[in-house]
Design brief:
heterodimer; A: 374 residues; Rossmann fold; Transcription Regulator spoIIAA; 3 domains; five-stranded parallel β-sheet; 20% strand; B: alpha+beta; seven-stranded antiparallel β-sheet; 7 strands; 31% strand
Chain lengths: 374, 178
């Protein structure tokens, strides 16, 4: 649900700056130029928070606040004063009326979002489901590790060229990096000196900009104590060294809500081609499975009538793999789509050993499957 | 000449003005500002004629004006050449110079708020030292080759600054309030 913030300020410049400060957050900004307009907008929109100036024509901020607090329907809306008035008497007078915070102009945009973020659950736009990133979008991964060799290894480990790995060695460098640009994901080595990984984690979670950025802990497989401690702290996931990059990529995709369907689904000519991943691990098959229904529905919606399941890279067959294909075929039948299988002799032979797949017929290539289905 | 008109020395007032200017530019624009110097607001040599412009320039000027009323009352005017006014607006509101050119009235909004913020910091310093006062709504003055005159018996001093390679001035008038 999109939050609403009402900014009441006679200065259009301040309203522009406020809008700019919240542009990366999932909030709707409502504007009013004085207390009268502000009260009307508050009644109509019931905002989640009001930013209120003091000195305004028609009705000033103190009068608006007084009226707001005497209205049973509006009195619980949190109010943050945003004003150049910082005289002790004025601040005390306003504080007595009941406000949540007081920001004195001139102000840093970060201070504004930070203070507002302590009152309402501000979320960056990228966290909202309608802005899902895909594999072709740039993804910035910040690795906090004091061993440069590990950072280099991670840089080389990812298959996706749009994933940019940035390396920093300390808490200070991490904070500086995040001030300039917020990464999509942060990986922190749990073996940083003086347990600074945990201090850094707390700092990241207390900062508005990085509050919702997934944070992975990076640790040697045998250090169970650190893994347990990181889980208790609330790290999004724990990655063990030596790193299994396929597993790491799957975890990252899940953590940042990345749409990885293009890795497995392609629309070619009249066909929807489903490429089952080479290593048919449960995690990878679950990932394919999560896209099955929406992708097949998309195919039907766009007039496709044929589906090819390409499993030719699979080295060995297991029950998760059989189940995925059985489910997929079921969806195709339900939607009256024709389907064919492409596989290697080994897969074909192993499938004969399972009751569910003993009658499956495999073509040796996508081209053969296409020509036979004509 | 104005030392006895208000309960502050020239140095104390200067410090408050510099703080107000620096706070605005550092917080809202992340810019460094150089204090060039200060001078009396009334030119003794021209005492019988019209006073000289605060900021002599061939270019049109924009002045952001804000007042304060209370134990001490006065006006803080920020005089800028139009080019600098546009640069400040651009940095302040995050707009490009092209966008500002298409919507020139936004400069008035920005300069009005700049005056409000600078005047606010200055006024708050006065309040913190026991001289309570309230701010007035800001206004903008535009034009070329004009002077602003004040009645006698008030403290007036002009503080010159430089940023982005251009001069600008803070013109302060104060008198004891009612």
């Amino acid at each position: 649900m999109q939050l609403k913030i009402l900014t009441v300020d006679d200065s259009r410049a301040v309203r522009i700056i406020v809008k700019k400060a919240f542009k990366t957050y999932n909030v709707e900004l409502i504007e009013a130029a004085n207390g009268v307009e502000g009260l009307a907008a508050a009644s109509k929109e019931t905002p989640d928070l009001i930013l209120l100036d003091v000195t305004m024509p028609v009705m000033d901020g103190v009068e608006m606040l007084t009226k707001l607090k005497s209205d049973p329907g509006l009195k619980n809306i949190p109010v943050v004063m945003l004003t150049a008035e910082a005289g002790r008497e004025m601040v005390l007078k306003i504080a007595k009326l009941g406000i949540r915070d007081y920001i004195v102009k001139p102000f840093k945009e970060d201070v504004l979002t930070e203070k507002v973020g302590r009152i309402i659950d501000l979320r960056p736009i990228s966290d909202t489901p309608n802005k899902k990133k895909t594999l072709s979008d740039r993804c910035d991964i910040l690795v906090v590790e004091d061993k440069p060799a590990i950072i280099e290894q991670i840089k080389r480990g990812f298959r996706n060229p749009t994933w940019q790995v940035h390396g920093v060695a300390s808490t200070g460098e991490t904070i500086d990096f995040c001030q300039k640009s917020v990464p999509d994901l942060i990986m922190i080595s749990l073996s940083l000196p003086d347990e600074s990984a945990y201090t850094l984690f707390r700092l990241l979670r207390s900062n508005m900009k990085t509050k919702y950025v997934p944070v992975f802990g990076l640790v040697v497989k045998t250090d169970l104590h650190a893994q347990q401690q990181a889980q208790q702290f609330g790290f999004t996931s724990i990655i063990t060294k030596p790193i299994d990059y396929e597993d790491l990529e799957t975890k990252i995709a899940k953590a940042i809500n990345l749409d990885t369907s293009e890795r497995y689904f392609a629309f070619e000519e009249d066909y929807l081609i489903v490429h089952v991943p080479e290593t048919n691990s449960t995690a990878a098959l679950n990932e394919v499975s999560s896209y099955l229904k929406p992708k097949i529905a998309e195919a039907v919606d766009n007039g496709y009538t044929r589906v090819i399941f390409d499993v030719h890279t699979i080295k060995s067959v297991n029950m998760s793999f059989i189940k995925l294909l059985v489910d997929s075929m079921g969806i195709c039948k339900e939607l009256t789509l024709s389907y064919s299988l492409v596989g290697n002799p080994n897969v074909a032979s192993e499938c004969k050993g399972f009751e569910e797949s003993k009658d499956w017929v495999f073509y040796s290539s996508i081209e053969e499957a296409k020509s036979r289905s004509l | 000449m104005s030392d006895n008109l208000i309960p502050f020395t020239n140095e104390e007032i200067e410090e408050m003005v510099i703080e107000a200017i620096n706070k605005f530019f550092a917080t809202m624009l992340d810019w460094e500002v150089e204090f060039v110097g200060s001078r009396d607001g009334v030119n003794e040599e021209d005492i019988d004629g019209p006073p000289a412009p605060v900021l002599p320039s061939e270019e049109p000027l924009v002045v952001g004006m804000v007042g304060f009323i209370g134990t001490l009352s006065g006006v803080m005017n920020i005089h800028l050449i139009e080019t600098l006014a546009c640069l400040i607006t651009s940095g302040f509101l995050g707009m490009s110079l092209e966008e500002i050119e298409e919507e020139p009235e936004v400069v008035n909004d920005a300069l009005g708020e700049m005056g409000n913020m600078i005047g606010g910091v200055f006024k708050n310093s006065l309040c913190d030292q026991g001289y309570s006062c309230r701010m007035t709504l800001p206004s903008i003055l535009r034009g070329s080759n004009f002077t602003i005159e004040t009645p006698s018996g008030v403290f007036r001093r002009i503080y010159d600054f430089k940023c982005q390679g251009r001069l600008f001035s803070a013109d302060l008038t104060i008198k004891p309030g009612e």
